[in-house]
Structures are given as structure tokens and as C-alpha cells.
């Protein structure tokens, strides 16, 4: 059973569209234009805070875009609750292959999808480098009935926004807030029961300890009483020839269980 506090999110698309940089910027790393293409799959984590002190851990799976690795996307999509499909707005081919990426994803999972057109920083410096218009991106997203954002991993434009949108969609679709609340209540009840049981055990242990202490005290008292009697009897037997029994008290020693007094001559 999947832990609802751990959310698996995929990001797919052609190689070199900036998938790794998008994730790295989101988790707080610096932008690196010379990031090596992902081979296979890479995993990242980030914890996000929700209302009522709830927390989620996002498991972000960065998949390779090369055709020879597309079978891995099918393999690693299992258990995912959301998916970004990304393209490079300066690379027409990456946009034209979006249909293929949608088919790969939808054949394996039915989850919220967000379309991402990356590298707006390049076209802001030189508009002629744009190969996919924003209108084309919007039309494609409308056809697929998914949200659409243009982003810049370099400038971190809309990076936090797309992840916030994805988390909100996953929470809404999976009713995660209600499930987290139920989980917290369940854990709270369990903790209370365990705490109560521990208290009862402590009380029982304390009672046992008190009984043992009482037994030890009673034993010590008996030992002391027995010791005094034995010492007195030994004294009487050993020194009987030097003891005279008198009624008055003079250097007196009270003999146990006797009605008379004695003094040493």
C-alpha cells in the first residue's frame, strides 16, 4: 500500500529540453547550463508543507528523453500520481514529439498532467530563437485538456508555480487532505492507547516495587529483632556466672522477653 505522505511525480520529454534543470531549480540548486543529459532515471526529493501542519514528500523522477530509454518511462511510471511533459520552445522537434510522450504516459497511468514549455530566458534575449509560439503551446494543452506554463529553469520563472499547481491537483484528485487527517487521527489514537498502556504498566511496576520494599523492610525488622534476642541470649549464656539479677537499674541492660533487669559485676 502506497504511503500517501510520499508523492511520486514524473517529468518526461525529449532529451535536452531542461527536465533536470527544472527539478534542480525547484529543490534549490543553482542553474547549470551544462548539465549532462540524464541516462535512465534520476530521483530527487523535496518536502512541502500543507495546511494544518501536514507535510508531503515529493519524489521527483527525472527520466531520460532518448528513444532507447522510453521503455524505462513505462517501467518507472508505476505508482506516479502526477506527470510533467516538457518541451523546449527553441526546439520545434521537441514540441512535435509531444503526442508520442502523451501516449506513453496515458498508456500506463491516469494522473494529472501539466504541459511545460521551457527556456523562455533564451527567447527573451533573442525572440528569433523561439520555434514554438505560446499560442501553439496553449492550443495543444487545450486539446489535451491540461494546464500549460512556459518556464525558465535559468531564471526560475514559473518553476515553483508549476509544482504548486501539480501538488494541488494531486491533493484534489486523491482527496489527500482528508486521508492525511484520517491518518493523523488514527496515529493519534494509536499513540494514546500505547501511552495509556505504558502508564498502566508503570503503575503495576511501581506497585510491585513498593511490595518488594515493604517485604524487605519487614525482613530487616525481623532480622534485627532476631539478632538482638540472639545476642542477649548468647550474652546470658556466656556471662551467666558474672551476672546477678536485681530489681533496681544500675548499668542496666534490658534482656529481651524478660521481666527482670541485670547489671555486669
Task: Describe what this molecule looks like in 3D.
It is built from eight helices and nine strands. By secondary structure, the chain is an alpha/beta fold. A hairpin with a 5-residue loop joins strand 2 and strand 3. It starts with 5 loop residues before the first strand and ends with a strand.
Strand content: 15-25%
Major sheet attributes: 6 strands, mixed
Radius of gyration: 41 Å
User: Mean pLDDT, rounded to whole units?
Assistant: 77
> Structural class, from helix and strand content?
alpha/beta
Q: Roughly what percent helix?
A: 40-55%
Strand order of the main beta sheet, please? 2-3-1-4-5-6
Number of DSSP strand runs: 9
What's the helix count? 8
Contiguous low-pLDDT stretches (5 residues minimum) are 189-197, 229-265
Identify the overall geometry. Answer: elongated
Compressed to H and E, one letter per element, the order equals: EHEEHEHHEHHEHHEEE
Q: Termini distance?
A: 93 Å
Amino acid at each position: 500500500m502506497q504511503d500517501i505522505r510520499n508523492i511520486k511525480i514524473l517529468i518526461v520529454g525529449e532529451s535536452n529540453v531542461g527536465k533536470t534543470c527544472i527539478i534542480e531549480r525547484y529543490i534549490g540548486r543553482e542553474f547549470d547550463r551544462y548539465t549532462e543529459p540524464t541516462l535512465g532515471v534520476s530521483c530527487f526529493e523535496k518536502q512541502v508543507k500543507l495546511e494544518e501542519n501536514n507535510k508531503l514528500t515529493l519524489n521527483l523522477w527525472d527520466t531520460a528523453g532518448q528513444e532507447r530509454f522510453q521503455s524505462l518511462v513505462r517501467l518507472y511510471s508505476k505508482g506516479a500520481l502526477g506527470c510533467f511533459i516538457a518541451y523546449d520552445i527553441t526546439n520545434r522537434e521537441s514540441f512535435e514529439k509531444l503526442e508520442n510522450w502523451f501516449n506513453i504516459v496515458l498508456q500506463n497511468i491516469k494522473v494529472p498532467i501539466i504541459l511545460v514549455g521551457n527556456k523562455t530566458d533564451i527567447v527573451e534575449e533573442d525572440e528569433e530563437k523561439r520555434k514554438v509560439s505560446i499560442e501553439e503551446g496553449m492550443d495543444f494543452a487545450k486539446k489535451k485538456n491540461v494546464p500549460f506554463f512556459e518556464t525558465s529553469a535559468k531564471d526560475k520563472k514559473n518553476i515553483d508555480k508549476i509544482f504548486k499547481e501539480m501538488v494541488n491537483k494531486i491533493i484534489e484528485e486523491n482527496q489527500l487532505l482528508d486521508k492525511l487527517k484520517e491518518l493523523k487521527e488514527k496515529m493519534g489514537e494509536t499513540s494514546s492507547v500505547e501511552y495509556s498502556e505504558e502508564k498502566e504498566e508503570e503503575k503495576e511496576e511501581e506497585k510491585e516495587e513498593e511490595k518488594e520494599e515493604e517485604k524487605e523492610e519487614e525482613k530487616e525488622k525481623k532480622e534485627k529483632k532476631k539478632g538482638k534476642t540472639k545476642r542477649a541470649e548468647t550474652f546470658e549464656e556466656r556471662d551467666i556466672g558474672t551476672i546477678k539479677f536485681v530489681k533496681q537499674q544500675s548499668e542496666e541492660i534490658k534482656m529481651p522477653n524478660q521481666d527482670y533487669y541485670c547489671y555486669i559485676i
